[in-house]
Amino acid sequence: MKKLKIASIPGDGIGKEVVPAAIDVLHTVAELHGGLTFEFTDFPYSCEYYLEHGVMMPEDGMKRLSDFDSIFLGAVGDANLVPDHISLWGLLIKIRREFEQTINVRPAKQLPGIQSPLVNPNDFDIMVVRENSEGEYSSVGGRIYRGEDEIAIQNNVFSRKATERAMRFAFDLASKRKGRVTSATKSNGIVYSMPFWDEVFKDVAESYPNVKTDQQHIDALAAFFVTNPSRFDVVVASNLFGDILSDIGAGIMGSIGVAPAGNINVNGKYPSMFEPVHGSAPDIIGKGIANPVGQIWTAKMLLDHHGEEEMGQVLLDVIEETTKNRIITSDLGGSHSTQDVTNEIINRLKAKA
Ligand code: ATP
Ligand code: MG
């Protein structure tokens, strides 16, 4: 029997509503699997925890989390309770940094029965792989002079190690999918870092002869996400470009409530962390209407990460059957509750046994 030890951090707001729902779903997946069990340990780290203890997590928090196979997180931050810079840096960003989760993966896929804002959505199924540790979001730079002579300088940092790591991850992922990687570049305008990015892309591509490649400038690529998203499989991008592309990806899916994400520690030295794209949604707390699909799809990414791709596919199929039958929450134009959607997914999984 394979046992996965998962640290669950429901966090704030609707995180406390959708994480238990997704955990119920994962237990059902384990039953269906037969040879897999989950052991969840709940951690109360959140804004409420901060109000009580003055910190987002205790001193030994990171050490305790490091014992787990993965972290399953809901949402962190509720600006009505604690300023965002405290809650994010004290928990979310702290985990991402200290556990070297240098890659962020975000699927963008059209779910049946859901209205995409695109005029012609076709059938898109994209994975955006974002380098998440350096690039344009470095803290190298400064400001000089004052007044009308003032100059701000922000340096991009691209190391061969981190760039190669993101690209290898993208190629490995594409090998299990449709076998295509598109690189987001801008080497016609950014003349040092982006030609370097292109070079590393070419080098890495050589060791994956079965994966087709292409490169697009980020401006054209962003437009294609809107006009023809079905042409993409895996898209690999720098920190800034990946940030923008993955938000376009969530946008064309129809609601932020369905978008999943993974923060990956590639070397397996520390746990990876899976969390939906949406936040704590303070405006709908306690109403029972939070869309659980983002968190449940995030659970599918956790399954994939631990080599349970077959079960991951079963879970995604069931999510799609559920949206197709319009068992959906109000953010998608439906009238079902969090519990209705969760029950539907669980019942459909049980029916596959
Ligand atoms: P953060 O800064 O943590 O990302 P935010 O306020 O910017 O928080 P969200 O918390 O994601 O962003 O909320 C944005 C809007 O989307 C809100 O109106 C919220 O109610 C809605 N929303 C977010 N997640 C869901 C969900 N799972 N189901 C339904 N509505 C959601
Ligand atoms: Mg936000």
Automatic annotation (TrEMBL):
Alphabetized Pfam families for the sequence: Iso_dh
What would be an example GO MF term here?
Answer: tartrate dehydrogenase activity
Name the keywords, alphabetized.
Manganese, Metal-binding, NAD, Oxidoreductase
Keyword set includes Transferase: no
EC top class named in words: oxidoreductase
EC number assigned by the record: 1.1.1.83
SUPFAM superfamilies tied to this protein = Isocitrate/Isopropylmalate dehydrogenase-like (SSF53659)
Against InterPro entries, the record matches this protein to: ICDH/IPMDH (IPR050501), IsoCit/isopropylmalate_DH_CS (IPR019818), IsoPropMal-DH-like_dom (IPR024084), TTC_DH (IPR011829)
Domain named Isopropylmalate dehydrogenase-like: residues:
5-345
| Cofactors | Mg(2+); Mn(2+)
- Reactions catalysed: (R)-malate + NAD(+) = pyruvate + CO2 + NADH
The keyword Nucleotide-binding belongs to this UniProt entry's keyword annotation: no
Q: Which PANTHER family has this protein been placed in?
A: D-MALATE DEHYDROGENASE [DECARBOXYLATING]
Which family does the record assign? Belongs to the isocitrate and isopropylmalate dehydrogenases family.
Q: Could you identify this protein by its name?
A: D-malate dehydrogenase (decarboxylating)
Q: Which organism is it from?
A: Piscibacillus salipiscarius
